[in-house]
Structure formats: structure tokens, C-alpha cells
Amino acid sequence: MPRMAAKDRREALIAAAIRLMARDGVAKATTRAIAGEAQMPLGVFHYCFASREELLQEVITRLAAESVVAARQAFAGAEDPASMITKSLQVFWQGVELHPEEQLVGYELAHYALRQPGMEPLARRQYAEYLEAIEELLSEAAKRLGTEWTAPVPVLARYVHSVLDGLTMCWIVDRNSEHSREVLRLAGEHLLSFIAEPS
Amino acid sequence: MPRMAAKDRREALIAAAIRLMARDGVAKATTRAIAGEAQMPLGVFHYCFASREELLQEVITRLAAESVVAARQAFAGAEDPASMITKSLQVFWQGVELHPEEQLVGYELAHYALRQPGMEPLARRQYAEYLEAIEELLSEAAKRLGTEWTAPVPVLARYVHSVLDGLTMCWIVDRNSEHSREVLRLAGEHLLSFIAEPS
DNA sequence: GTCTATAGGAAGATAGAC
DNA sequence: GTCTATCTTCCTATAGAC
Lengths: 199, 199
Prior knowledge:
DNA-binding
């Protein structure tokens, strides 16, 4: 008599893995540790997942999707179209300062995927999704403002993503919120300067 | 009769470790693999280093120092003070596209240090050195131009560092050189806009 | 499906002959 | 100092009883 359906076990293991990786890092998330975190016997792991790598792939996909959803929500929440950009950046940054471990896990998983033969496509997709989400948000913003961007949207999206990604990592290391927020403000204003006057 | 002084062994092992990590990643750089790469018996490792961690600490310090030196050289090489910034960014980027593995190792080591209890200070120092180097370069640039920055130098340095760091990681994943160079150009121009008119 | 027990290997580090 | 052989621990994955 199963206490839990196999499908639910999978979910529980994924959740446990994410929790564990956020706390101790991807390297420490062994099959044993994950099963332990989910309070299941080790043997369970391998009839829910074919291998540790399969679980990690699932985690990468989940986390990337979550991040994209969070970004869209932050964006949709803004009323005043003029401050849409600024507000989204602030909401994103609040998330970073509140849950830096999750961001760190994202980096670790990307590197893991890049180093694992055959898993590079997953890392590529992870980044492609982020970039695409930002592109959509930028296009949406221009549309709502009834204007256009004066630089190619894919380039602007890459710019935004790079600043946020680099700034996040920098803050995770030195926790300098004051300077980080200044950079965020500065980059936000720069981005706004690429909005053409409404025709 | 030693074929090599212990001090030289240390250097050889460090070099082998860096080579190996660039090729296969930090996780694959086990004591066995490093000794093998240096064509030494495993036993050698532990009378050159007290532990694997001690070697990694040494590697982190070396790589950070190298990066800073490279940045200064790129900067010093420019003649025309007006294009100093732009040129430095380009030189940096050439390095990234030529040796992306080294950059990736830098990220991996930073994350390793952050996750290893007691090693966070090393990661902090690594980032602090980068930031400080950029601050010095910015100050030097303003001095040569006979002008000032219209924003705090530490903030500008963090901005530059973040863009470069984030953009590098993004390029390592998707190898989109065209868009990356556009972002670099765009960020460079933005940076130049913070130069006050010479008094 | 479920869990215990274990296979089989690789990791960091050390003991001890030379 | 030098190197071989080995200790101990921890890993992923599986075999096999229930």
C-alpha cells in the first residue's frame, strides 16, 4: 500500500532537491541527501528517476520556468506605464535580496549543464527562455506606451539580462545593497533612454 | 634524488589544475586527475598541499591576480585617451571570446568558495579585487582626460563589472557574438556619458 | 510498488617502505 | 623527499525479498 503515488513522489523529490540545493549547493545534492531531505529511503529515488542527472534536468527546467513566470507577474503588476520598467527592475531585485540562494542555484545548474556532455542544450534553452521573456516584456512595454525602441529589442534584452545577472552575482558575493541599487537605477534610466518619443 | 624541487612541484600541480579545470570543469579536478595531468603519482599531491582545498585556494588567488593584471595591461596599451574606455572593453572581450573556459572556471571557483564553509572570504576578496581594479582604471582615465566622473566611481565600477560578467556568461552559453558586441558598445557609450566636460 | 541490503567504483587522505 | 599500496568514506545504481 503506497503512502504516496509515484507521481507525487517525483514532485516531492524535486521539491526536496531544490530546497537542499538552495541550502547547501548543487554539489551537495547527492541522491542520498535528496532522498533524506524528502524523508524517503534511498531506493525510492531510482524508480522515480532513471538517474541523478534526470532529476537535475527536471529541476533546471522547473526553475527556469518559475523565473520567467515571476518576471511576467512583476511586469503585469505595474499600472503606470511610464514606471513599468523601473518597477519591474525593483520587483526583480527584491526577489534577489530575499532569495539569493535560488539565484545561486541557477548559476550552479547552468555551469553543471555546460560541463556535462550532452547537457549544453539545456543550459542554452535556460538562457534563451530568459532572453525571450525579457524581449516580450520590452515589446509589450513599447506597445503599451504607444512607441518603439530605438535599438534592436534582442540587444536591449541581452543588455538587461547581463546587467541583472552580473549584478546579482556581485551582490551575492559582497552584499553591497546600496551600490547595487544605484547600478540598477542607472541601468534602468539608460534603458528608458531607448524609448522613442510617441509619434 | 628528486627530479624536481617541492616548490616546482607545487607550481606544476597548480598549472595542471588550471589546465584541467579549464578543460573539464572544477568538479572533475580531483586530486587524482590533477596529479595525473601533471604526470605525477597521486602521493605527491599531499606533500605539496595539505588538501585539495588548499590547492583550490591557491588557484583562485592566482587566477584573480592574473585577470587584474590583464585588465591593467589592456588599459595601459591605449594611446588616445578618448578611446581608452572603448579599447579596454574590446581587449577584454577579445580575451573572453578567445579563452571562455578560463572565465567559466572563474565562475565555478567563486561558487565553490561561496558554498565551502569558511571560504566565502576568498570569493569576496576575488570580487573586491576586480572591482577595485576597475575603480582604479576609471579614476586613471578621468585623470588622463583632465576631468571627473559625474557618478560615484565605485558605482560605475560595479556597473561595468556587472555588465561584463553577465554578458560573458551569456555569451559562453549562447555564443551570440554579434548581439554581445552590440551590448558592449552600448554599455561603453553609456559609461562615456558619465564623463564631465573638462573644466 | 516499496524498501533493505549491497554491489562496484571513485573520492580524499595516509602509512610505511625506500 | 618519493612513491606504492591501502584505509575509509561516500557516491550512483541495482538486486531481490516482500
